[in-house]
Amino acid sequence: MNDHIARWNSASKCFDLANVGIERRYGKYKRELFTKCQGKVLLVAAGTGLDFPYFPEGLEITAIDFSPKMVEKAREKMGGYSGKLEVVEADVMSLDFPGKSFDTVATSCTFCSVPDPVKGLKEIYRVLKPHGRLLMFEHVRAGAMPLGAMMDIMTPLFRKFGPEINRRTGENVRKAGFTITREYNVYLDMVKLFEAVRP
Ligand SMILES: C[S@@+](CC[C@H](N)C(=O)[O-])C[C@H]1O[C@@H](n2cnc3c(N)ncnc32)[C@H](O)[C@@H]1O
Question: Which domain does 108 fall in, by range?
Answer without folding.
Answer: 3-197
